[in-house]
Write a structure and sequence with these properties.
The complex is a heterodimer of chains A (162) and B (213).
Chain A: H1 4-15, H2 18-24, H3 29-49, H4 52-57, H5 59-76, H6 79-93, H7 98-116, H8 120-134, H9 141-144, H10 158-161
Helix pairs in contact in A: 2-3, 2-8, 3-5, 3-7, 3-8, 5-6, 6-7
Chain B: E1 2-7, H1 11-21, E2 27-33, H2 36-46, E3 50-54, H3 62-70, E4 77-82, H4 89-96, E5 100-103, H5 107-119, E6 124-125, H6 127-136, H7 150-160, H8 165-172, H9 176-190, H10 195-204
Parallel strand pairs in B: 1-2, 1-3, 3-4, 4-5, 5-6
Classes of the chains: A mainly alpha (162), B alpha/beta (213).
């Protein structure tokens, strides 16, 4: 039987590669937290705006927005979002048939939904967990409290499951 | 001390790269900018040793920024950041004069090494890019597609995928005559005589997979 914490950790790991997010922030957990918050804000806006009507209304603006999801997602470790956005951007750039673009857009929206579903607190806890397990950093203690503040997405650490 | 200018339209990435580079005592970020035009202005002021430039930015693309940075009286060495890791893009940026090409998903791990390498006069390509180029049998610099402008490459790609010139004209909001002119120029640059030879070239340089035909 898979322990609930492991299931949650796997889901969060599918959304955010915490090791990459920390590396992308120069291994500074505080900077990583800020970057993840910013990207989640971008994702929340994108969820509302990325739809076929918008793609038809202003293709170039739409492509730019998709590119930023691709670029930010790949850099920061939101791998599923980044990969799905890259696929859509490639189709937009190559003027793929509308049905291919629609399919790629649906895939990207699913990836965005999956990234937003755990919520900011859970992802930041996942990030802090990554920081605690991989780094020794002066700022890390300020982030650890969240590990035990999350009943739904509680993560394992040596103190609670040791 | 190596002075560096960062150019990326996403603040998120500039914040991250500055944090990454702050760990290197031999590197100093002297300017970070969100567009190519400001980058050209600030490059004159700061005269950085290295410019790290995103390929895809509004107003002025990374290809144009690279070419114009290199035309300055004190040109920086340019490293390009991109999500476009498949040929012909790395070759195109190389042809524009970029000394380094870093895949965005590897930027945090590769950027310091890339900066040191180009500052020492060497070329730098992210390892994943080098693997891809070697697998394609086309190292940087010997791909004829780099001779095409961005617009020509776009039209070339659409033509070899089977779009008729009249369809392209509608798609790109230009006259069919314009498309025919582009096609002739593309054929001249590539040294091919017809659409079949263009398609073979697209496959050879991995712009097109045989399975997509």
């Amino acid at each position: 039987m898979v322990h609930p914490w492991a299931t949650n950790a796997m889901r969060l790991g599918d959304v955010l590669n915490a090791t990459q997010a920390l590396a992308a922030a120069g291994d500074d957990p505080a900077v990583a937290e800020d970057m993840v918050k910013r990207f989640l804000t971008i994702l929340a806006t994108a969820r509302a705006d990325l739809n076929p009507a918008e793609a038809l209304r202003d293709t170039e603006r739409f492509r730019t927005r998709v590119h930023r999801l691709c670029s930010g997602g790949l850099y920061l470790g939101f791998e599923r979002v980044g990969t799905a956005a890259r696929s859509l951007e490639s189709r937009l750039t190559n003027h793929a048939p509308p049905e291919e673009i629609a399919a790629a857009l649906a895939e990207l929206n699913e990836a965005i939904q999956a990234a937003l579903e755990p919520g900011e607190a859970a992802l930041l806890a996942w990030l802090a967990h990554g920081a605690n397990t991989t780094l020794t950093h002066p700022h890390k203690d300020s982030l650890t409290y969240r590990l035990t503040d999350l009943p739904t997405y509680r993560l394992i650490d040596s103190q609670t499951h040791g | 001390m190596i002075t560096v200018m960062l150019v990326d339209d996403q603040e998120l990435i500039r914040i991250g790269l500055k944090a990454v580079l702050s760990h290197d005592p031999e590197i100093k970020v002297v300017a970070d900018l969100d567009n190519g035009l400001d980058a050209l202005r600030q490059a004159r002021v700061w005269q950085p040793d290295v410019a790290v430039v995103d390929v895809d930015m509004p107003e002025l693309s990374g290809v144009e920024v690279t070419a114009r940075l290199l035309a300055l009286p004190h040109p920086p060495r340019v490293i390009v950041l991109s999500v476009l890791t498949q040929p012909p893009w790395p070759q195109r940026l190389r042809a524009a004069g970029a000394r380094g090409y870093v895949a965005k998903e590897r930027a945090s791990t590769d950027i310091r090494e890339a900066i040191h390498a180009v500052h020492q006069g060497r070329l730098y390509f992210s390892p994943t890019l080098v693997d891809g180029l070697e697998a394609a049998g086309s190292g940087p610099g010997n791909d004829p597609l780099v001779a095409l402008s961005n617009r020509e490459l776009e039209i070339f790609t659409l033509l070899v995928k089977g779009h008729a010139p009249e369809d392209l004209a509608r798609l790109l909001h230009v006259s069919p005559k314009t498309i025919y002119s582009h096609r002739d120029r593309i054929r001249n640059k590539l040294g091919v005589r017809n659409d079949v030879e263009m398609t073979h070239m697209a496959i050879r340089y991995r712009l097109l997979k045989e399975t997509t035909l």
